[in-house]
Amino acid sequence: MSNKLHIKIKKINHVGIPINDRKKSFELYKNLLGLTIIPSMVDEKHVIWSKTSDGTMVHLIEPKDGPGNALPNSHVAFEVENFEETVEILKNSPWKIINGPGERYDGQKYVYIQDHDGNMLEFNTHSNSKHSNRKNDEWGYTKNP
Predict the structure, then answer these.
(1) Regarding beta strands 57-61 and 9-18, do their DSSP bridges make them parallel or antiparallel, or are they unpaired?
(2) Within a domain: residue 113?
(3) Three-state secondary structure call for residue 39
């Protein structure tokens, strides 16, 4: 067994799924699968936040330039026990941090890397670390009150 520091993953916090048009995609994700649309904790109108009945989040991600444009990459987000240590481990690893570390409106901290195959991996703390008054409409568009 190695004494080397490692990232301590607690669970999958969320997955990001590329979609082309929220109004068409809601038929599956919201109406058939029963995902609940929740307020987004980032200022990106093309990202729709939703969750399953157990609270696992699913981020539906439209192209930034609107339907019919190139779809964004998918990603998986791992909730970690040791966020600050995770950031230090990543800084000292061969994988470059490509976004973050940062903090969302609900206090959740995050950092992103990309693996050798181009897959995005996010590491974050628990969601809803602090209260947010953000609200969303029926199509998942979120604004600050």
Answers:
(1) parallel
(2) yes
(3) coil
Q: Tell me, rounded to whole angstroms, the distance of Cα 54 from its chain centroid.
A: 16
3 occurs within a structural domain: no
Within-domain flag for 136: no
Beta carbons of 85 and 5 less than 8 angstroms apart: yes
Written as six digits, the tokens of 1 are 């067994």
| Domain containing residue 44: CATH number | 3.10.180.10
pTM of the predicted protein model: 0.76
pLDDT, tens only, 50-95: 999 999 999 999 988 877 777 777 889 999 999 999 999 999 988 8
In which domain, by residue range, is 100 found?
9-129
Average pLDDT, the chain: 87
State how many domains the chain has: 1
Cβ(77)–Cβ(13) under 8 Å? yes
Task: Name residue 69's beta-bridge partners.
Answer: none
Beta bridge partners of 59: 16, 49
Residue 141 lies in a domain: no
User: From start to end of the chain, where are the E strands?
Assistant: 9-18, 36-38, 47-51, 57-61, 75-80, 97-103, 109-114, 120-124, 135-136, 142-143
